[in-house]
From TrEMBL:
Lineage: Archaea, Methanobacteriati, Methanobacteriota, Stenosarchaea group, Halobacteria
Reactions mediated catalytically: FMN + ATP + H(+) = FAD + diphosphate
Protein name per the record: FAD synthase
Source organism (scientific name): Natronoglomus mannanivorans
Self-association and partners: Homodimer.
Membrane spanning stretches: none
Amino acid sequence: METTNPTDVLAQGTFDLLHPGHVHYLEEAAAMGEQLHVIVATSESVTHKPKPILPDEQRRTMVAALEPVDHAHRGHPSDFSIPIRRIDPDVLVLGHDQHHDEDDVRTALESWGIECEVRRASGRVPRNGVGKELLSSSAIKSRILELAVESEERTRSTERERHSRRPLERSD
């Protein structure tokens, strides 16, 4: 009786402030095989954008809790190839907005002795109309800052109103 190994699919990313775009990416990646492995980048290895807000293990735990994920791995702080070589995937799925060039990824995988198909996931289209769904961590962070500014402005306005209603003190 011949046994076949499951198709191991690999997705990777920072996954800081999980959002529907992350879920879409991982659901699409999971559909490309039987076992979905996800590598969560360490804070030290993130150099192409601001450092993550959430700690490494918290981000890994959140990714592991998602239904399409079979295995969530913490990335290596200085050599991203180590967990990829350990997993030895059959398919590596890049996120639609990840900065990696597919041909460069294929070349790197070949140099590590990994025979692997490289695919790119599609982007998620907002389901509730344009602008109503936040599909990136940077959009979430921007919205948080907008709300903080609005809250601060309301607080200042309330303080000014309260101050302007105070009766004038007499100085005799």
